[in-house]
Amino acid sequence: MKYNGTAPGDEIPASLPVKMSVGSFVVAMFGMGLATNARDMWTSGKKLAFGAGIGLFCQFLIMPCVAMVAIAAGVFSNDEALIIMLMGACPGGGASNIFVYYLQLNLDLSVLMTNVSAIFSFGLTPAWLGVIPFLLGDYEYQIPFGEIASGVGQLVGPLILGMLVNHFWRKKSEIGQYFLIAFLP
Asked: Is 155 inside any structural domain?
C-alpha cells in the first residue's frame, strides 16, 4: 500500500472532537439531573455543610495559593504560569459525579458541590487570574468571561433541566438510569 500523505482522521474538522466532548458532557449532566432532585440535594447540603465548605475553601483558596507558589518559583514561562493558575483556580467535578453514581455514593451531594463550585468559579476564577500580572509583571491577557459563562451554563443548565424532568415526570428513575447507562462509558 502506498502512502498518500494523509493520516487517518485528517478529514475530521478540529472542532468536532470538542463539540462531541461538550455534547456528551451536557447529556451526562442531564442524566445526573434525572437521577437527583432538589429536595435531596438541599438535605445533603444542609447535613454536610461543613464538609462542603471545606471543599470550597480548598478549591478556591488553597489550590490557587499552591498554584501561586509554584508560579513564584519562577520555573514556568508566562503562558505556562497562566495555565498553572487556571488549573489551580478552576473547579472540576463532572467526571467525579459519574464515579459517585456508579459507586452508589451520595450523588446529590456530589452534584450539589459540582454546581456550587461552578457558580462560584464564575467570579473567583477571573479574580485569581487577575493575580497573574502581579506575579509575572508585564504579562497581558484577557480573562475569558464568555467561555467561563458557557462552561457554567453547560454544567448547570442541563442539570436543572434534568431535575425538572425528574420532578414532573413519573417514570423518573427509569429515565435517569437509561440516560446514565446508555450515554456514559
From this structure: yes
C-alpha cell at 59: 478549591
3-state secondary structure of 26: helix
**Residue 69 lies in domain:** 34-183
114-to-9, 21, 43, 45 alpha-carbon distances in Å: 34, 18, 16, 12
Whether 179 shows a pLDDT value over 70: the answer reads no
User: The pTM is what?
Assistant: 0.65
Q: Distance between CA atoms of 133 and 159, rounded to whole angstroms?
A: 35
Within-domain flag for 29: no
DSSP H helices in 36-171: 38-47, 49-57, 63-72, 78-89, 94-102, 107-129, 132-136, 145-168
pLDDT (tens digit per residue) in 16-55: 777 887 888 788 888 888 878 788 888 877 887 887 788 8
**How many other CB atoms are there within 10 angstroms of residue 154's CB atom?**
17
CA torsion sign for 45, 51, 54, 55 is: negative
